[in-house]
Design brief:
This protein has 149 residues and is mainly β. 5% of the residues lie in helices and 34% in strands. It has a 5-stranded antiparallel β-sheet with strand order 6-5-4-7-8. It has a 3-stranded antiparallel β-sheet with strand order 2-1-3, covered by helices on one side. A hairpin with a 5-residue loop joins strand 1 (38-42) and strand 2 (48-49).
Length: 149
């Protein structure tokens, strides 16, 4: 699912452009986002892991590999941000930061914005189903989250 234009700039761009690590270790993740796919490390032993590492946490093999997973998750925890960390974020507060657990990917957890329109923060509950949406920015794509219907 692609995020509608009204969410394309959910937060002002103040922290710089997200780019792969200089080592290229997380490049498959960034390339996947640009293609509107969620790609994370998945070893041949069956282990999923995030953040990416050069070694599998379970079997200790090098170069664990990557696989696509559905951008469907469960809200593990969340926080509503009322006070801007930087002056440029003043126009964006309040916003909701979420930690999302991906059951189909071994329970790994990703952090992102939880986009709310008609749903108020008072109605958000830990354990709620969420769906990832891809927000195309200027030359990169962010993975953000929305409550699932």
């Amino acid at each position: 699912m692609t995020v509608p234009d009204l969410w394309a700039d959910a937060l002002p761009q103040v922290f710089g452009r997200p780019v792969p690590l200089p080592s290229g270790l997380d490049r498959p993740f960034h390339d996947g986002l640009r293609a509107h796919r969620l790609v994370v490390q998945h070893c041949t032993c069956g282990a999923w892991q995030w953040p990416p590492e050069v070694i599998c946490h379970r079997c200790r093999s090098f170069d664990p590999g990557w696989a696509e997973t559905a951008p469907d998750g469960v809200l593990y925890t969340w926080a509503r941000v009322w006070h801007p960390a930087r002056e440029e974020l003043r126009v964006a507060v309040p916003y909701v930061v979420a930690v999302v657990e991906l059951p189909a990917a071994g329970g790994i957890r990703l952090v992102g914005n939880l986009l709310l329109d008609d749903v108020g923060a008072a109605e958000i509950r830990t354990g709620d189903a969420v769906r990832g949406v891809f927000a195309d920015q200027d030359g990169y794509t962010l993975l953000q989250w929305r409550p699932r219907d």
